Amino acid sequence: MTARVALVTGGTGGIGTAICRHLASLGHKVATNYRDEGKAKAWQDAQKKAGFDFAIAKGDVADADTAEAMIRDVEKQLGPVEILINNAGITRDTTFHKMSAMQWQDVIATNLGSCFNVTRPVIDGMRERKWGRIVQISSINGQKGQYGQANYAAAKAGMHGFTISLAQENAKFGITVNTVSPGYVGTDMVMAVPEEVRNKIVAQIPVGRLGDPDEIAFAVGFFADDRARWITGANLAINGGQYMGW
Ligand code: CAA
After folding, report:
1. Which neighbouring-strand residues pair with 34?
2. Ligand 1 pocket, CB under 6 A
3. pLDDT digit string (tens) for 185-239?
4. Annotated catalytic, 147?
5. What residues form DSSP beta bridges with 136?
6. Could you give the CA distance from residue 235 to residue 167 in angstroms, rounded to a whole number?
7. Where do the structural domains in the chain lie, given as residue ranges?
């Protein structure tokens, strides 16, 4: 396994932390971005105590300028980004007839706009070096839609459109681009769904429980592997069987 430089956006979150740890355990040097310095430093310290050494760089993925500055900072600290995991995401759940323009725009900018803002500054280097791994963390709800998530489902579906276009354009440069679509995983984001609503969702999962962040991270490590070089433009659904569309 060749050690690479990996950037995981939103690495301080539930799935993000599991991805950072898994990539580090595979031998990669891993960085994440942050908006809140205090929170990020506390996270970095906690990870260090658990045996993981992660780089952090300031930058809001929803904003092209700060995202580019964040990439340059990561490059300075660790070297060129070879593995990019577009994982940062937010929810602003509400039925569409109550949705404000801000609730729409914030979700589109953070979850989908980030794919442009973060990938654009790393793609030229990957093409020059003839190697790259890009993984979008989408969602089951980008595939099936979800009551109360017109903004989120639109952004998450858009992420896979981004994947399959980028995959075509960059295949001949040794760059693979894939999507992982997690179902309901036991993170703060999912635990924020009202309990009664959440229980009804869990009842629809054939495996019978929420997912574990490690179960998502495992698939990201798979796509990032050297040997996954012929897998590009794929979407891997990991959702306990809740949605089996193909
Ligand atoms: N299908 C049909 N009807 C539904 C429904 C569904 N799935 N969910 C709610 N409803 C109905 C309710 O039964 C209720 O009907 P009545 O008015 O007839 O009683 C009505 O919708 C409530 O509608 P409101 O507009 O008043 O909604 P609300 O303000 O109470 O809240 C909501 C609605 C915010 C969407 C809330 O139901 C909710 O949080 N749902 C969960 C959304 C969700 O799954 N979010 C995922 C977050 S985690 C994540 O995003 C990670 C990931 O990738 C999986």
Report:
1. 58
2. 91, 93-95, 139-141, 146-149, 152, 184, 189-190, 193-194, 197
3. 999 999 999 999 999 999 999 999 999 999 999 999 999 999 999 999 999 999 9
4. no
5. 86, 179
6. 12
7. 5-234
Among 147, 190, 204, 239, which residue has the most ligand 1 atoms within 8 Å of its CB, making it the best to mutate? 147
Torsion on CA atoms 219, 223, 224, 226, rounded to nearest 10 = 130
CATH superfamily of 5-234: NAD(P)-binding Rossmann-like Domain (3.40.50.720)
CB atoms within 10 A of CB 47: 21
Going from the Cα of 10 to the center of ligand 1, the distance in angstroms, rounded, reads: 25
Asked if the model's pLDDT at residue 1 lies above 90, the reply is no
* Residue 140 alpha carbon to ligand 1 centre in Å: 16
Cα diameter, the chain: 51
Pair 202, 4: CB distance under 8 Å: no
Distance separating alpha carbons of residues 126 and 124, to the nearest angstrom: 5
Query: Residue 30's beta-bridge partner residues?
Result: 6
pTM for the structure as a whole: 0.97
Residue type at 219 in one-letter notation: A
Distance CA 109, CA 112 (A): 6
Helices in the chain by DSSP H: which ranges? Answer: 14-25, 37-49, 64-78, 101-107, 114-129, 140-144, 150-170, 188-191, 195-202, 213-224
What value does the mean pLDDT take over residues 148-169?
A: 98
Residues 187, 139: Cα–Cα separation, whole Å: 14
